[in-house]
């Protein structure tokens, strides 16, 4: 079983290292690295969810011989939905589960304009969500490296619009923090409108990045939903 993990706006593949360590070896994590950051910093940024979803789906083709579950946090949940739409019509069929974390349902849009903020206000927005340590982006050189990718991601997700009535034939497990300032529980529950295969919602203590304190519980939920038992501890030797 493979789990494709899609990061949040400004995030990188390394965000999912704790989850990969908890799930292995029973579930292999394939973490997506978006263009324009870390080892792909030299590649042009992508500012459109549909284009990103097309490219990710194409990159996953070598792994479509078996089931590919999807896990996306925040912007990654929207991407997961769009990748699921594309995969379900391919040779591998629908993904077994889409885990949508920290994001309201695709049809619940807001008039958000974070991508148009100046650098200081953009940094303040990032720090308010507690995904970055306070002061981490105070260094001008670090800002120059990081902020273009963050801004491109925000532009992609804030300009995304889900076509009316679009659903996936994929069970959706929705995960959300109970004090997330960007997603209400009601908005999370609305994911049920976008699947013909059923949905469930699990609420965790915490804000937008509740995951930092909940990786072990999240890994357990993933195993249950994918019906993959945890690896047995090594037995005695000698």
UniProtKB/TrEMBL annotation:
Residues 2-224 form the Thioesterase domain. This is Oleoyl-ACP hydrolase. The keyword Hydrolase applies. PANTHER family: S-ACYL FATTY ACID SYNTHASE THIOESTERASE, MEDIUM CHAIN (PTHR11487:SF0), THIOESTERASE (PTHR11487). Belongs to the thioesterase family. Signal peptide: none annotated. InterPro entries: AB_hydrolase_fold (IPR029058), TEII (IPR012223), Thioesterase (IPR001031). One of its GO terms (biological process) is lipid biosynthetic process. The lineage of its organism: Bacteria, Bacillati, Actinomycetota, Actinomycetes, Kitasatosporales. GO terms for molecular function: hydrolase activity. Keywords: Hydrolase. It comes from the Bacteria. It holds the Pfam family Thioesterase.
């Amino acid at each position: 079983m493979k789990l494709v993990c899609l990061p949040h706006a400004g995030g990188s593949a390394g965000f999912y290292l704790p989850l990969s360590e908890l799930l292995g070896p029973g579930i292999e994590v394939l973490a997506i690295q978006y263009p324009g950051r870390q080892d792909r910093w030299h590649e042009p940024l992508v500012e459109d969810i549909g284009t990103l979803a097309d490219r990710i789906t194409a990159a996953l083709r070598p792994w479509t011989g078996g089931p590919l579950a999807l896990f996306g946090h925040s912007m990654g949940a929207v991407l997961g939905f769009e990748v699921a739409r594309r995969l379900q019509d391919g040779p591998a069929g629908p993904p077994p589960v889409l885990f949508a974390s920290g994001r309201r349902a695709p049809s619940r849009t807001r008039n958000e304009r974070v991508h148009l903020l100046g650098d200081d206000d953009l940094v303040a927005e990032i720090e308010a969500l507690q995904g970055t340590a306070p002061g981490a982006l105070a260094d001008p050189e670090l800002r120059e490296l990081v902020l273009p990718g963050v801004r491109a991601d925000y532009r992609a997700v804030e300009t995304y619009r889900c076509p009316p009535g679009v659903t996936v034939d994929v069970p959706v497990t929705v995960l959300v923090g109970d004090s997330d300032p960007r997603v209400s529980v009601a908005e999370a529950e609305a994911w049920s409108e976008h699947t013909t295969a059923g949905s469930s919602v699990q609420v965790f203590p915490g804000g937008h990045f509740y995951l930092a304190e909940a990786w072990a519980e999240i890994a357990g939920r993933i195993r249950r939903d994918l019906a993959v038992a945890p690896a047995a501890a090594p037995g005695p030797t000698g």
